Amino acid sequence: MVETFCRRSVLQAAGLGVASFPAPAVALWQKSPNDRIRIGLVGLGGRMRAHIACLVALAKSENVEIAALCDCDRRRLESAPKDYPELQGLRYATYTDQRRLFEDKSIDAVSFSTPDHWHALQTIWACQAGKHVYIEKPVSWCIWEGRKMVEAARKYRCMVQVGTQNRSNPIVREGMEKLRQGVIGKLYMARAISYKIRGNLGKHRSAPVPEGLDWDAWVGPAQMVEYSPFMHRRWYWIANFAVGDAANQLVHDVDKVRWGLGLDSPPTTVMAMGGRFPPAEDDDADTPNTLAALCQWQGRNLLVTVENRHWYTNSEASMRDKYPFVSPNQCVGEIFFGTEGYMIFPNYSSYYTFLGPNNEPGPCNFADPQPDWWTESVPHFKNWIEAIRLGDHRHLTADILEGHRSTIICHLINISIRLGRSVNFDPERETFPGDPEAAQFLRRKYRPGYEVPEEV
Are the beta carbons of 178 and 338 closer than 8 angstroms? Predict the structure, then answer.
């Protein structure tokens, strides 16, 4: 049964454009360790299926409850029990304005599955309201936003977990530990790879806004555009709303590369090229579908390469043909190169090593069968819940700061492609020294009422 406590549209009333939440002194877990954590869910898209499956799986053992749903499309709220069968029989509030959910003092935490362009502002609003946050990757639409998210998490002492769930997978963690122990010798290079056949993504043809959808709220901090099913459904590959394939899957891979190489900051130099290949008349997406990047860190004798392809391609290190990711047509993962061999992480739950000049099989571990697509994040949500009870962001396996550092790499790749040249980045100040042309991409212009604040 669905209990509807509030159904209000964003900006429905005059003067509602700027959210204002009483800033809590702390967002530490004030209740008894045995008290239930009540979680609100925002954004009822495809990825939310994993959030719901994980939280329902953990409901009893971790004493958590799905207490509220929010989406600016009323149709999704009404169809939620059908779209997510795990919700059937649960009692929860529903909202069309996420700010009303943030005002609900009975909600302890919020889990977001929304487009990239909303991540920063809604995370900051939630932290200002004293809510802990689970935010999907990539954390931000631009570099400046990510820093503001980190500031908000620390100021309000909120546990902000990023959806780079590989960091909580026990087999992946074991493989990373073996890298640190020197299983393939001294590391000198790594590759982050995402080859997925996507094909042409369609055309933008304006259409009436569907009944029940608040298009103004959906567009939010981005620049307003006329509605079309293409804009609404293909936002992943539209620069106004998303970072594109430089981050969509690749943020997982560059995050693991940075983790495995022990890189605690973004790179200082990135050189990338890319575009939409082959050109297609029936495809209006405007972010690169094919790219290649080189990344280096000052003072570290390491090289990182990052690659994405949308069309037919070969496998790499057998990561498609022998060790597939999700489906046989996807070649996704990471390769680490050392002085004694190499290691691959071809999916979310395995690693393999190959040693010496003859590539002799070395230590490996893999889940058999692979976790299903909807519950592979269970350890990640469990880690978030543990950190909330402990009140210590250091317990998070994918704290917002780590997510921000990895997402910066994706932003730098896009900036280099846009400029058609390499860029030099100052990881301490998070800017481009002496390069105003690159600096213009550090942040965006926001629509009135949806500004990411200078002071969080």
Answer: no
Question: Which helix or strand (DSSP H or E) is residue 401 part of?
Answer: helix 400-419
Amino acid at 308: N
Position of tokens 């530990």?
177
List the strands of the sheet with 64-70, edge to edge: 93-95, 64-70, 37-42, 109-112, 132-135, 160-162
> How far is Cα 90 from Cα 67, in angstroms, rounded to an integer?
9
pLDDT at 284 over 80: yes
Percent of residues, the chain, with pLDDT higher than 90: 87
Contact of 342 with 353, CB cutoff 8 Å: yes
- pLDDT for res 28: 67
Confidence (pTM): 0.94
| 284: its two tokens | 């209006």
What is the Cα–Cα distance from 354 to 374, expressed in whole angstroms? 31
Q: Give every strand in the sheet of 331-338, ordered side by side.
A: 360-366, 350-355, 341-345, 331-338, 187-195, 303-309, 290-296, 269-275, 423-424
The span from the CA of 341 to the CA of 360, in Å, is 9
Predicted confidence at residue 38, as pLDDT, reads 98
Q: What is the amino acid identity at position 174?
A: E
The whole-angstrom separation of Cα 117 and Cα 141 is: 5
**Which residue stretches of 135-272 are H helix?**
143-155, 170-181, 215-219, 229-233, 250-261
Q: Which residues contact 256 (CB under 8 A, 6 or more apart)?
A: 166, 172, 176, 192, 334, 345
Q: Are 208 and 227 in contact (CB under 8 A)?
A: yes
Residue 277: which of 307, 321, 248, 241 has the closest Cα?
307
- Got the DSSP string for 84-130? SGGGTT---EEESSHHHHHH-TT--EEEE---GGGHHHHHHHHHHTT
Whole-angstrom distance, CA of residue 283 vs CA of residue 301: 41
d(CA 10, CA 83): 24
